[in-house]
Design brief:
four-stranded antiparallel beta sheet, 23% helix, 226 residues, 6 helices, three-stranded antiparallel beta sheet, alpha+beta
Length: 226
């Protein structure tokens, strides 16, 4: 069964990789707990629910020292166009001066075990949101239907025209971090509405006098950018 899974490419998919500390590498429970907490926070969409049991964490130490081991490039063969079947090894004086004498790096990878393309995409979005939140990036989750339904996108930069960001309009949204301003017209055309609450279930929630028009562009406030 395991061989069949390999042949049919039914393998866990890496949904993200990030640099970690040596402490997190030695005890991967630290990274696992952070990821489980991120999944719990991500499960805010009524149509989406990621299960923590469908993931596993792997921590890896990448290191190389010319003093301890042979230079990896010595095991690489090169081929010329005029003789494509004859492999040659690179000479020492041809090695790049950029080849490091020594380095050590630790990375953490999150794997998704279920065989669902849609859920795999959501898992990758969850990983992306998790890393952005750790870097304190401005983030807003926008939906093209009221009550946080329909198509959705996680936006982290100014978007002068929402159709360029993979969604046509905004009829509800959740401010995850930073301060944002919605505009009824594309390219930040007025009227505009500054978002001061974490959730807006419909346009009436951010617009005065019973506003029902969707937003067509969104921008980070000056305070958030600074």
């Amino acid at each position: 069964m395991k061989l069949e899974d390999v042949v049919r490419r039914r393998l866990p998919k890496c949904v993200g990789e990030t640099r970690i500390t040596e402490t997190e590498h030695k005890d991967n429970r630290i990274l696992e707990n952070e990821w489980n907490k991120a999944v719990d926070e991500w499960n805010i969409l009524p149509t989406l629910l990621l299960d923590k049991k469908d993931f596993f964490i792997e921590t890896i130490k990448l290191d190389y020292s010319d003093k301890k081991t042979k230079t990896p490039i010595k095991n690489v063969y090169f081929y010329r166009k005029r003789n494509p079947t004859d492999g040659i090894k690179i000479k020492d004086y041809e090695k790049s001066s950029l080849l490091p004498e020594e380095y050590t790096e630790y990375v953490g990878r999150v794997y998704y075990t279920k065989k669902s393309d849609k859920e795999e995409r959501d898992a990758k979005e969850c990983f992306r949101w998790w890393r952005l939140s750790k870097d304190r990036m401005c983030m807003i989750l926008v939906f093209d239907q009221e009550e946080f339904r329909g198509n959705w996108r996680l936006i982290t930069e100014d978007c002068p025209s929402l159709d360029h960001c993979g969604i046509i309009e905004v009829r509800s949204c959740k401010v995850l971090s930073g301060e944002w301003v919605l505009y009824e017209g594309p390219h930040y055309k007025e009227p505009s509405y500054r978002l001061q609450d974490p959730e807006y279930r419909n346009p009436e929630a951010w617009g005065p006098n019973g506003n029902t028009a969707p937003a067509l562009s969104v921008k980070r406030s000056t305070e958030s950018v600074l």
